[in-house]
Each structure stands twice: as structure tokens, then as C-alpha cells.
Queue: 2 jobs
Job 1
Amino acid sequence: MAGYHRVFQSMAGYGRVWLDMAEYGWVWWGIAEYCRVLQSIAGYYWVLQSIAGHCRVLWGIAEYCGVLLGIAEYCGVLWGIAGYCRILQSIAEYCGVLRGIAEYCRALQSISEVLQSIAEYCGVLQGIAEYCRALQSIAEYCGVWRGIAKYRGALQTIAGHCRVLQGIAEHRRVLQRNCRVLHRELQSIAE
């Protein structure tokens, strides 16, 4: 019986050893599970880090797009300024045309004043012609009195001059009529 007792005691010792080894195995199993959890967490961390890298790239692209948007807005402002400058250039060209028309109208006004002076001068010539016709009538009346020989030559000379002045008066009437027509046309153009 004592032998069996020692055998059972030895078996109990082996059982405790196996039990200790089993507990030690469970400890290693727990450590392995913990390591697998840490590995999963590490994998998740690498995924998050990759996502963060992509987010930084997207953030850089967004900032670049913001810069491009600012440049586009600035170009739009410059385009508007260029359009405004083209409008001002067109207005300046139109004002230059109007200035040329104004100078042309002033030139026409000067011509009109000259023609008016000519017309007034023609009126003076018409008065002289009428006076010459009166002298011619006197000369013709004086021609009846041939007895007054000493005045005949002078009266004939006066009559010749009067005929010349009468021709000038006729030419003056034509010129005055043409000047009036031209003056009306220039005045209508100037208006």
C-alpha cells in the first residue's frame, strides 16, 4: 500500500506539473491574443495614417484650387478693367470724331462769315451801280443837250464807266444769289 501511495503521490506531482504547464500555456495564449489585438490596432493605425496622408494630399489640392480660384477672380477683375478701357477708348475715338466735326463746323462758320461779308460788299456794289445808273440817266439827258460840248466828253466817259459798273452790278446780283444759296447750305450743315 505504501508503494501505491508513493505512485499516486508521484502521479499527483506530475499532475501538478501538467497543471502548472497548462496554466503557463493559458498565459502564453492570453499574451498571443493580446499581441494579435495589438497587431490589429497597429494595422488600423496604418490605415488611419494612410487616410491622413490622403487627406493631406487632398488638403494641398484644395489649397491649390483656392489659389487658382483667386487667380481666376483676379483675371476676371482684369478682364472687366480691360473691357472698361475698351469702352473709354471707343468714347475717346468718338470724341475725336466729334472734335473733327466741330472744327469742320467752325471752318464752315468762318466761310459763312466770309460769304456774308462778300454779300454785304455786293450790296455796296449794288448801291454804286444804282448811283451809276442815275449818272447814266443824267448823261443820257445831258446827251440831248449837244450844245453843251464842253461837258459831252466827260459825260460820255462817265456813261462808259457807268456801263462797266452796270455789268459789275449784274455780275454782283448773280454772285449774291449764289452766295445766299451757299450760305443757307453751309448753315444747314453747321446745324
Note: The chain is about 95% helix and 0% strand.
Job 2
Amino acid sequence: MSDLSVIKSGSHPLIKHLVQLRTCKKYRQTSNAVFIEGEKVIFDLASNHTFEKLIVVEGATLPPSIRFVEKHVISEQNFKKISGVNTNSTLAATLKKPEARTFKSDENLLIFDRIQDPGNMGMLVRSALAFGYSGVFLVEGSVDYFNDKTVRTSRGAVFSLPFQEGSLQELLLLASKNKARLLIADLEGKSPESITKDANPFYLVVGNEGQGVSAKIKNKGEAITLATHPHVESLNVAAAGSILLYLLQHLLQPENSIEV
């Protein structure tokens, strides 16, 4: 392994593969792999995963605790090409893409209704995992769960929090089948503290950053909001959603909430 030659050509098949993996959802699906960039997220994942490919910048030191199938050393210029961002990191990797799953009737979920910003999605996924949610459902039109920025901002939580993708109608059928309450994050909603507690699971729905939650979902659920200072118009999706994720778990199902 220590005698690997450095990949310096930008047209090398591996470099092309990694760029495609980072930029194209369809390519990730057909390759059944996900691109990961940055020491922090790779170190977070290393304790529970063996990477398919580990990509190291020429001259960088590799921690001995990281497990991998293949190791490749590339030039700094090629690393900038595969990462797509200005970064000082020296590590990238690929992991097998997790399979989607169908959720059971006793699981609380986070629902993404056409969320577009992968940074918002990543932060919310990390919060949902931290506060004990069972998974996420992505309504068609949402940014890819394994977008490289989603992976990075979630600190790899997308590999630990199960997901399901589907149409708006499939979401409504899932909620009906599981007798789940749809709780809609909305500026015109009521206080989370006013929601009646019951034994049913609940799905917190966060909507598109510009358009909010679809009317068809709103009509089936209860709108909730956070009271804020009058000088603050609203919190962004990631901030408000993270607070609601904690509050709802704590208020509606305290036996499942995380003690702080």
C-alpha cells in the first residue's frame, strides 16, 4: 500500500468516477456508492464502517484506525477537482449506498417536503438522529439524501438514519396506514405545547424553503410553530426544525426523548 503511485492526471478513470459520484444522483444510484469528503465526517464514520475507497492527498498522514478496501493517493490538484470546494482537507472516501426501507407503525419520522438546500437537510438529519427519531421520508422533489453537502453537514448521519423516498400520495398512505399524526412546521401554526398527547406515532413535516409545505399535506395535518421575538421574522428551516424535533419528542413521547 505504501508504494502506491500518485494519480496526477485529471483524466484518470478514478478521478472521473469520483467527480461523477459527487455531482450526479443517478450515477450514485447506478454505482450504489456515496462520495464523502473531509476528515471530520470520515473520522466520525470510521468507527462503524469500512470504506470501499479511501482517497488520500499526496504527502498526507493517514490515521491507522481507518479501515478500507482500496487506498488511492492523488495529487492536491486532483483532490480539489473531486471535492468541488475550497478545502484544506486531505481525505475523501466512498461507502456503499444504504438501501431505503419501509417504516413500521410505531416509528416517529422527519418528513422532507421538497427541501432544496442540502445544508438544511444535513443539519436536520443530524438533529433527528440525535433526538431519537426512527428515520426520514423524502417527498419527490427534495434534494438527494446522499448529496455530498448533505453527507458533510450531517456529519455522516445519513448512513445511520434510515430513509424512504416516495410521492406525496405515498407519504399520505404511509401516515394513514401507521395512524401517524402529521405535524406541519408552519408560521401560522399553534404552539407545540398545545398539542394533545396520544399513543400514535407522529411525523414532523418541514417544507420547501420558499413555498413551505404542500397544501395536500397541510390539509391532512396539524400546523405548529415556534413563538419568536417580534423583531425576528422567522427562523430558517434547519434551526426551527431542529428545535421542533426536540420539543415534539419531549412533549409527546417523553419515554423516547433524550435527556439533557
Note: The domain at 13-96 is CATH 3.30.1330.30 (60s Ribosomal Protein L30; Chain: A;).
